[in-house]
Specification:
mainly alpha; 0% strand; 148 residues
Length: 148
Amino acid sequence: MTLKERITDDMKAAMRAKDAERLGAIRMLTAAMKQKEVDERVELDDVAVIAIVDKLIKQRKDSIEAFRKASRQDLADKEEAELKVLSAYLPARLSAEEVAAEVKAIVAELGAKGPGDMGKVMGAVKAKLAGKADMGQVSAAVKAALAG
């Protein structure tokens, strides 16, 4: 079963259970997936769906932070509920140590020497770790590997 099929099945289950919060979050995700398919005229695979989920999670985290600064805990709670639903569709994340090890291996493989090679390294790392790690954490690991 593809991730896209799993999301559709979860949406049907949420409808049957009359779980409005979960249903809303899943519908938002399916709308983003359909938008991507229509815009680019492609059929999404699991990697593309994970990229969309990652993007939506980052948006939720940013919104939660903004709502908390504005003392709007009610809206922050709603975003946190959506974040929890979306997180279920991501594969297990790599630990900081595993990310650092992967980054060091890629830096050695590419022969990168310093901060000027950041773009080249990030391109290779992004291709290998997409969906498996938080890209903010990956970026910090690349900077540390190229600086040291």
